[in-house]
């Protein structure tokens, strides 16, 4: 019963799909761990309202460990330059693996920039504009590979090596 109350206190409406999704991690955590996750997010610069927004939008984010929260926020904010506010808008960024998803994609985009290939996608008006790292990180794997790794026949082997971490710095070969 306490877990149901905790879910309601977080703003989930009893009987809703989101309520059901929130109860599961709450049951596994308990109040002490939930409080530690909240404190961890606060220490990283999130306000109480932002924390509640994150948890309401993505109930499964309640189950993410403090270590993973810190690692993801550190990479996303310090390395990729994504503002904290975007983590609130896109709470999936807390769940992605830094090592297997974000770092490889970041390396590819940085390599593409360094060889003057503009990472672009069509807009609704048919024009092209650069994608943000948020868009790159949330893009489905097959679409990312197709659009950025395999799209340029001349450099796709090199970009694939960079993606898989087999080449540290693109410039080392040139």
UniProtKB/TrEMBL annotation:
- A Pfam family the protein falls into: mTERF
Q: Which GO terms describe its molecular function?
A: nucleic acid binding
Which keywords appear in this protein's UniProt record, sorted alphabetically?
Transcription, Transcription regulation, Transcription termination, Transit peptide
- Write the signal peptide boundaries: none
Q: Which InterPro entries match?
A: MTERF, MTERF_sf
Biological process GO annotation list? DNA-templated transcription termination
Coiled-coil stretches are none
Family indicated by similarity? Belongs to the mTERF family.
* Protein name per Swiss-Prot or TrEMBL: Uncharacterized protein
